[in-house]
Structures are given as C-alpha cells and as structure tokens.
Specification:
By secondary structure, the protein is an alpha/beta fold. It is about 35% helix and about 20% strand.
Length: about 180
C-alpha cells in the first residue's frame, strides 16, 4: 500500500488528474460533499463486484461497470459503448484491497464445493473453475490496476484513464502512484 496517495483536498490530487472527473469522484466520495445530481455521466468507473464498496457520488455522474477484480477485459464492448455512445473521456480503474480475485487458485476447492453444494456436478464445477479462473485472476491489486490502466490507454488514446484503490478498511478512495 506504499504506492497509494490519500486525497483529502484538491491539493493532494496528482497534477495530471487535477480538475478532472477523477478528482471530483475521489473528493466527493472521500469528503461526502457533492451536489445532489449532475446532468450527465462524466466518466466510467470500472470496479469490483465486491459488496463492501459503495461509492458516495451524485446520481448520473458515472457509468459504473462492476466485474470481479475490476477486470474490464471481458467487458470491452461495454467500455467502448460508454466511450462511443455515452461520450465519456475519463475512465477510473478502481481495485480494492482484500480482493477475492487475488489468489484464485487458493480458493479452488471452496469454489468447486460451493458449486457442488448449489447443485452442480463436481466434474463440471472443476471444468468451470479451470476455464475461467485464469481470465479473472488479477494477481496483485495495485499491479493489476496499473496494467489495466496502460492497456486501456493504448486502446482509447484520447481518454484519460486513472488507477484508483478503494480501501475497504477505511472506505476511502486512493490514487495509485504510477
């Protein structure tokens, strides 16, 4: 967590993000002060499906895609839709600490047994895990956010893409130092 930048005021925001929708997102969430609503989506937030995270932002401010680990690779068309049709020019890749998509192989037995308990055949549950776990494993949260940020910057060169971390211990959003 040594590469995290706590944002409590506009002066804390890294220079490339100052005045951007990313700054508004982080400050609104971290301070709780924001307008009731905004007119249109200013950005896309890709974040984990984890139930411990809830953004404190105004209505209509952001498209939000939730996927395990904040991994947008399987949601590429949805990202393109937000950019092409929704007109967003800012994307935040928001990972969080204590993510279940880190170290998936260590949850292999729990995953398979959970599906068996839900009525799956054991062999099909095994096949399902082995087919999809490599796609959704993110490794280290911070490293994943940085690599996904770089990947999206190459894919959408005129879109501002920023890596963020939601700390489930204090419920604050941090910028990730690049």
């Amino acid at each position: 967590m040594h590469r995290l930048i706590r944002i409590d005021s506009p002066d804390d925001m890294p220079e490339p993000l100052r005045g951007s929708p990313v700054q508004r997102l982080v400050l609104w969430h971290n301070t709780g002060e924001h307008p009731v609503s905004v007119d249109h989506a200013e950005m896309l937030v890709g974040m984990c499906m984890d139930n411990r995270k809830k953004l404190r932002i105004p209505e209509n401010f952001a498209f939000i895609l939730r996927a395990g680990g904040g991994n947008l690779r399987p949601s590429e068309f949805k990202v393109s839709y937000a950019v092409a049709v929704g007109g967003v020019r800012t994307i935040a890749i928001m990972v969080h600490n204590h993510c279940g998509m880190v170290g998936l192989e260590g949850r292999h037995e729990q995953f398979v047994q959970g599906l068996v308990d839900a009525g799956w055949d054991h062999d099909l549950a095994e096949q399902h895990f082995h087919a999809y776990a490599p796609l959704f494993e993110i490794g280290n949260e911070i490293d994943f956010a940085l690599s996904e940020t770089q990947r999206l910057r190459l894919r959408y060169p005129k879109v501002l893409v920023a890596p963020l971390l939601y700390n489930v211990d204090d419920n604050l959003i941090y910028c990730i130092e690049e």
